[in-house]
Design brief:
By secondary structure, the protein is an all-beta fold. The chain has no helices and 27 strands. The strands form seven sheets. Strands 2, 3, 6, 7, 10, 11, 14, 15, 18, 19, 20, 23, 24 and 27 form a 14-stranded antiparallel sheet that branches.
Length: about 350
């Protein structure tokens, strides 16, 4: 048997996660129109990796598979044992009031949230993420229940905002020879905006749905290396991401939908439906790389028409999705050397059409 220039293996650890929580919520009806709600939750998470080993050897003459690595000269095994415990008490305070009975209800709330930390290879830990959310809004019922209009404004303040990426190890030529998912904690992040939605039955046969969201997001202090291009330990490419937008967070987005029910002479119905979604430009990662890491503004329209039999026992529907055949990215990556990277992307399905049938017996 010849000499191995390099050999390695990873012995999977025994990963255990235990989570325990207790919570309660109570509402006080101040009077017939005003309610106050308070809630409290305590969460504790324990996470551990035991027995995981990274086993490597340079210039060894014996294979490792099926053998104890410690018994083979030249092999080294680095432990990955790690244990983390995180706990947090979170709370909610909300007030809501019926301004006009059965027509207009307004509310205001402040609440906190908690996401535990992560255990990672090499015995490392990532810290937890916490959130304080402030929200005010109104819910309206109009025309005797034929229409509803809801609007809300929010401000979200994150501490220890968790960001994830595949951290790579590269050889001298820049080729990836290994990778692992790593969680980092930004100092924090902020997101604020307004959301509104309308659902209206204009006539007994016509329905309209509208939704609109406007938001602003930004990272607080975080220094990181874009591991799609550079090795995770290449500090010469460390960049400051403060002020960058959060991934998949367009400044403006919305959806409009309309359907009409036609009554046919045989007692069946024919229901055409159209729905269009739009988004302004957004980024696919917190690095905000222009062009390659960017989803440009787009619209996506779906069409459908459904025939419901008079008996109600079966229906037939034809549909077209993504009528525009828009290129809509969901993820962006890269491979090859950092000097001449080849950028890749994952896309939503292109224009798709088909037929659905349903029957009940």
């Amino acid at each position: 048997m010849g000499t191995f220039s390099w050999a390695g293996s990873f012995i999977q650890s025994d990963r255990e996660i235990e989570s325990a929580a207790g919570f309660g919520q109570a509402t006080w009806h101040v009077n017939d129109d005003i309610r106050l709600t308070g809630g409290l939750r305590y969460t504790r998470d324990d996470k551990s990796d035991v027995g995981g080993r990274n086993v490597t050897c340079n210039g060894c003459t014996e294979g490792i598979f099926g053998r104890d690595p410690y018994s083979i000269p030249g092999y080294t095994a680095s432990p990955n044992d790690v244990y983390g415990q995180w706990s947090k008490a979170t709370w909610l305070v909300r007030a809501d009031a019926d301004i006009i009975k059965d027509v207009l209800m307004t509310y205001a709330s402040v609440g906190t949230g908690f996401k535990s930390g992560n255990i990672e290879d090499g015995g490392k830990l990532a810290g937890p993420e916490t959130l304080t959310n402030y929200e005010i809004g109104a819910k309206t019922t109009l025309f005797g229940g034929k229409a509803t209009f809801n609007v809300a404004a929010y401000y979200e303040d994150f501490t220890g905002y968790q960001v994830n990426q595949a951290v790579t190890t590269r050889d001298a030529a820049g080729h990836v020879i290994g990778s692992q998912i790593v969680t980092q904690n930004a100092q924090g992040a902020k997101a604020y905006g307004i959301e509104a939605e309308l659902a209206a039955r204009i006539t007994p046969r016509d329905t309209v749905n509208l939704s609109l969201s406007a938001q602003h997001t930004e990272l607080e202090e975080l220094q990181s290396i874009d591991a799609r291009l550079y090795s995770g330990g290449d500090v010469s490419h460390l960049v400051e991401l403060k002020g960058n937008e959060l991934p998949h967070a367009p400044a403006l987005s919305g959806t409009i939908g309309y359907e009409h029910v036609f009554d046919l002479g045989n007692g069946a119905t024919l229901t055409p439906r159209v729905s269009t979604h739009f988004e302004t430009r957004s980024y696919l990662s917190f690095f905000n790389v222009a062009n390659y890491d960017e989803q440009k503004a787009y619209t996506r329209t779906d069409l459908a028409v459904r025939y419901d039999a008079p008996s109600g026992n079966w229906s037939l529907e034809g549909f077209v999705q993504n009528l525009e055949n828009a290129n809509i990215k969901t993820n962006a990556g890269a491979f090859g050397g950092p000097a001449t990277p080849v950028w890749t992307a994952v896309y939503q399905p292109p224009q798709t059409w088909g037929v659905r049938a349903r029957a009940s017996f």
